Amino acid sequence: MGIRRVQVELEERSYPILIGGGALSELPGLIGPKVSKVAVVTQASIPLSLDIHQPVKVITVPDGEVAKSFVTLERVISEFVEFGLSRADLVIGFGGGVVTDLAGFAASIYHRGVTLVNVPTTLLGMVDAAIGGKTAINIREGKNLVGSFHQPRAVICDTSLLETLPPEEILCGRGEMAKYAFLGADNLLQLPLDAQVEVCAAIKAQFVSSDETEGGGRALLNYGHTLAHALEAQGDLVGGEQRIKHGQAVAIGLIFAARLALSLGRIDESRLDEHLAVVRSFGLDSKLPGWADPDSLIELMRRDKKAIDGLTFVLDGQGGLEVVQSIDPGLIRSELELMARDKRS
Ligand code: GLY
Questions:
Q1: Contacts of 165 (CB under 8 A, 6+ apart)
Q2: Does residue 146 share a domain with residue 59?
Q3: Considering the domain boundaries, does residue 176 fall inside one?
Q4: Paired residues of 17 in beta bridges
Q5: What is the CATH number for 75?
Q6: Are 12 and 35 in the same domain?
Q7: Does the annotation mark 222 as catalytic?
Q8: Residue 34 in contact with residue 43, Cβ under 8 Å?
Q9: Given the CA of residue 134, which atom of ligand 1 is nearest to it?
Q10: For the ranges 31-40, 133-142, 157-166, 267-276, which has the lowest average pLDDT?
Q11: Does the pLDDT value for residue 239 go beyond 60?
Q12: Per-residue model confidence (pLDDT) at position 241
């Protein structure tokens, strides 16, 4: 099977997502004639292989969310300047979500915006983070609070890069894939890996094409994420380091959202069971971690940057997924407590 191609349709800013083993060989053909230098933002732990003619400056950033800081951003931009990167040149984000978020933000503000190509090296990056133009860094008050929309020129998902990815990173990507199972991706796990990535990327591309800056429908891509972000934030606070991976947190968030929808009479028991079956089929845990504390989770969810009016969740219902605002904190608290005790989840 050759390289699969999914298109993000954004008029003059449309771009391809190229998927498959060896897709990286397409990179030279994507570099425009005016590009004379290429800055690659990556991490030392990522095996980098690029076969291009232009002079390359490799800029390594630390592993983990700590790299998404103003300090690292400033260093990356200083390195662009020292390298002599011009407005006509190219930035490549070569790594997981941390790298593509940071490289994308740097590319969006350097000389008021230079061309970006994302080469995600994780499953999570290939099915979500590298697609759609969201870029960000973190500040003390919260994750991704500073950022921009800056669409890449192309996203290259070379699935051969996943061969050496640690199993926990694959599992992390699977949390986002479980989400796509509720956004129209049926029987994902029965497909070969390249086709799994293609189906997820196509769904994401469709949402981005119809609502680039999340004025409406794109918000449904946050299914499972309200609790997930709070769990990640609380995990960091409790453990002093990342205690739960994003994909695993999303899986638990999907189950919680289904439980909430059930208690609001939006879905029936069998639909909750479907959520449990999907999450388990992806090898993910559906239980609330023992360290999860309902009160602080509610506080963190209140501060979610997606919350426009009170506690906001994407919830399932008769008409499919929709954003529901102002959910009673008492109900959320009792559902969190029930979930912590329930043997099924
Ligand atoms: N990760 C959700 C989005 O890109 O909209």
A1: 121, 122, 123
A2: yes
A3: no
A4: 6, 155
A5: 3.40.50.1970
A6: yes
A7: yes
A8: no
A9: 4
A10: 133-142
A11: no
A12: 65
Residue 130 CA, ligand 1 centroid: distance in Å: 9
Catalytic residue, candidates 26, 214, 299, 322: 214
Query: If DSSP states are collapsed to H, E and C, what string results for 84-114?
Result: CCCCCCEEEEEECHHHHHHHHHHHHHHHHCC
| pLDDT of the residue at 345 | 62
> What range defines the domain where residue 319 resides?
223-341
At a CB cut-off of 8 Å and minimum separation 6, what does 241 contact?
Answer: none
Asked if residue 182 belongs to a domain, the reply is: no
Residues 255 and 299 in one domain: yes
Biggest CA-to-CA distance, the chain: 61
134, 150, 245, 275: the active-site residue: 134
One domain for residues 49 and 116 = yes
Q: Which of 17, 15, 14 is nearest to 6 (CA)?
A: 17
User: For the segment 60-87, what is each residue's pLDDT rounded down to a tens digit?
Assistant: 999 988 999 999 999 999 999 999 999 9
Find how far residue 167's CA is from the centre of its chain. Answer: 18
Residue 298 neighbours by CB distance under 10 Å:
17
Token output for 275: 């959520």
Rg of the chain's alpha carbons, rounded to an integer?
Answer: 20
